[in-house]
Amino acid sequence: MEENSQKQIKGMVDQVELIDNRMQRQLESMAVLDQQYIAERCIGRRKEDGLVRDKIDQYDQFFNVGRTITSEMNMDVLFDVIMDQTNQIMSTQRSTVFLYDETPQELWSLVATSMKKNEIRIPADHGVAGWVFQSSHPLLLNDAYNDPRFYSGVDKATGFRTKNILCVPLINRKGQSIGVIQVINKNLGNFTDADRKLLTSISHYVAIALENSKLYEEVKSYSEELKSTLIRIETIEKVKSQLMKFVPSCVAKLAEHNSDELAGKKIPMDVTILFIDIQGFSKITEEFDQTLVNDMVESHFSSYLECINRHGGEVNETSGDGLMVIFKDGSLESHARQAVAAGLEIVFENCRLNYERLYPWGEVKLHLGVNSGGAWVGSTKMKSFTGERWTYTASGLVTILAARIAALSRASQLFVGLETFKCIEYDSDYEFIGLQEVKNVKKPIPVYWVKHLK
Length: 454
Known about the structure:
The protein is an alpha+beta fold. It has helices at 2-70, 75-90, 127-135, 153-158, 193-243, 249-257, 281-287, 290-310, 332-356, 397-408, 418-424, and strands at residues 92-101, 106-109, 120-123, 139-141, 165-171, 177-186, 267-278, 314-318, 322-327, 366-384, 387-395, 414-416, 428-436, 445-453. The chain has two domains: 69-219, GAF domain (Beta-Lactamase, 2-Layer Sandwich), CATH 3.30.450; 259-453, 2-Layer Sandwich (Alpha-Beta Plaits), CATH 3.30.70.1230. Strands 7, 8, 9, 10, 11, 12, 13 and 14 form an eight-stranded mixed beta sheet that branches. The protein has a six-stranded antiparallel beta sheet with strand order 3-2-1-6-5-4, with helices on both faces. Helix 1 (2-70) packs antiparallel against helix 2 (75-90), helix 8 packs antiparallel against helix 9 (332-356) and helix 9 packs across helix 11. The radius of gyration is 51 Å and the shape is rod-shaped.
């Protein structure tokens, strides 16, 4: 019985050892499997990490390409930048941008990689570029010469051999195709769908850059045109400001607002004419220094002009020592009174200037005459073989009499004719000079010396 018990115990021990050995082998096997799994998992992670790093590097490169392309505004330089950057990121031998020229309906390129800066032009419906432009869809050809859409004319012209080609459209902000970008001969292997996606992404930057460059060129051209226009306007204004010194202000206003009326017929209207000149001016000019004489004329007549402007007169004609002034605004009574008021102010200014400035010939004395009546006012054209000359004046007897009345005046007395006198008779201090005979007028005319206005 004891012997049987020992056998049973031994059998149990053997069975336990057997199980233990099996478990040991299983554990060892599992350990090996775990090590293999860990190793394979590490390799997978390294591959995944590598792919992620490659993707990040590609996106970083793509971002730099986009930033570089869109930062250039000059169209000539931009073509070079696009070609260089596209070749780098796509790893290709050559790249080309074709833009659409609407007038001849052609696609043109300013530059291609490894080529001179010669302009290439092809019909807008020819070749791969034409097909992509017309359809607005990308095209990938890894055997270019076996595709009927491939146009070998550029290869023949340049001596280049195209093996494979990837071409995508350039789409602007409005969704319109403005051209294409293509890459030729991938350095390693064939073009893939991933290449198509990458070049499509690049094309967005290229389209934006080209549109910005076009706008920049238009703005630059407009700016140059505007600058040129401003220079012309500035020149015209300078000339105008100089001419204003020689042209009556009424003529300047008419030219500015309605230049067509300058060449119109003369208009009959009531006017008052004031004539002013310096008494004995010829003798003064003959006997004294011209610089001194000119200084006298400028200082005196500058003050007289202020008086004329204050009362609405228009200086119509000038000579070395005289002025013809037209007063025509308002009624006859109104501009007659304004002319007399201006004349009396001139008499006062003359007196003041004589007191302030002494000249070797003595006091400056004036002839002053005013006359009112109907006249023909407007432009007069004088034409000869050498050209035309236009004057703007009031013609008629009223003007002639004003000049004759002024010639009668002495020592800065203001003489007026009958029609003017009727307008200021009750508002003035005057003296009747009498009936005066004047040159080229048959009958004597009444002349009045106006001393003051009330």
